[in-house]
Amino acid sequence: MTGKKPVVRAECKVKAGVIGPDGAGKTTLTSVIAAAVSSVSNEGFSDAKLEGKVQSVTSASCVEWQSPACHFVLLDWSDQGEYIKSVIRGAAWLDGAILLVSTRDGVTPETEGHIRLARRAGVEQLVVFVNRFDLVENHDSESLLKQEIRELLNQNGYSSDSMRVVFGSAKAALDGIKRGDGGEAVKDLLGAMDKSFRLRRGVEKPFLMPIEDVFDRPGDGVFFAGHIDRGLIRLGEDVEIVGIKPTRTRTVIGIEKLGRKAVGGAEAGENVSVWLSGAQSDSVAQGQVLAKPGSLSPHVEFEALAYIMRESEGGRATTFAGKKTREAQFYLHGAPVTGHIVNLCEDGKRIESTEGGLVSMAVRLAMPIALEEGQRFSMRDRGKVIGHGVVTEIVG
């Protein structure tokens, strides 16, 4: 026995990322966070784990720790391209992100690009760490840089008033932790993450469950199975069936979890089967969703930011080349829907085809689907995955 108090794993789980321009010190900051959460384990943090890969979907470092309030997973991508691919394709759904700004370079166009992408990808909470502040002789510049950062955040749809800006030095903190007398700025950063990132929890959002399967149980009725993406569902509540067909409202008269266990309610992250009053199996299809009444509506036109796979990544040599109409199968809520790509742009310029990379597009679907900003999708062409995207704006 070591006499060490056991760490109680909290219900709150947070996945975050370190974003910012190359050369701003992301790798050093990730290392110092790993060292910091290990050094304060007696205050309720568990030992950190530093891994070279996160599953097999992205090239990134991963630091994982337990704070007194939440279980954290922090990702640090090897380069901007990996970050873009991971966030857009949904391989790394982030609850929040640390935006790293170097005092040497200040706010750069690359900084704005990271903020814009984070916003479009649905990252709602940011904490800013201004690095290398120990190299600044005139600390009066702190307020000016902070104001510039807040203005940029506001311009991109964030409410900067509620966001923490922490000034410090990742390298100095790492050296200080090794000596046992430093790292206060990084501890402030960890505290800011603990308070800010766990404000966004799935159970607090309107209920949403894509319908994955429909089955008729003799003697009971029709059940709709799926994974609850967000929110709560309770017996006796009304839900709407949204997408493909006209929206209908039904009452929840039964909820079952794995093993046909009847329950009074369920929440985000759980797989359930839902029994609705008056619903028929032939009136519901995959691609539709169950949602809180009034929270979601069907649409056929949207704009998106997408990553088209290059040939070296398993995509085509040239995507959409030689096509009179640019069409693809868009997988939304688990179902394929034909979509016509009305407009395709790369670096702000209209293009007819692409060899791969980051593009923006305007899409018109063949049928109405429940859509919202921040929603992710994948694209296939003739059975081959060609890319992944995120909805940035609903058009019609």
Report on this structure:
Helix content is 19%, strand content 40%. It has six helices and 24 strands. Strand 20 and strand 21 (349-350) form a beta hairpin.
Number of strands: 24
Shape: globular
Q: Round the Cα radius of gyration to an integer and report it.
A: 23 Å
Q: Indicate the CATH topology of the largest domain.
A: Rossmann fold
Low-pLDDT stretches are 1-10, 41-58
Structural class: alpha+beta
Short descriptors:
396 residues, Elongation Factor Tu (Ef-tu), domain 3, 8-stranded antiparallel beta sheet, alpha+beta, disordered N terminus, Rossmann fold
List the helices and strands and how they pair.
Elements: E1 12-19, H1 26-39, E2 49-51, E3 60-66, E4 70-77, H2 80-89, E5 96-102, H3 109-120, E6 125-131, H4 141-155, E7 165-167, H5 170-179, H6 184-196, E8 208-210, E9 213-217, E10 221-227, E11 232-234, E12 238-243, E13 245-257, E14 261-262, E15 265-267, E16 271-276, E17 289-291, E18 297-308, E19 327-332, E20 335-346, E21 349-350, E22 357-371, E23 376-381, E24 384-394
Parallel strand pairs: 1-4, 1-5, 5-6, 6-7
Antiparallel strand pairs: 2-3, 3-4, 8-17, 9-10, 10-16, 11-15, 12-13, 12-17, 13-14, 13-16, 18-22, 18-24, 19-20, 19-23, 20-21, 20-22, 23-24
Helix pairs in contact: 1-5
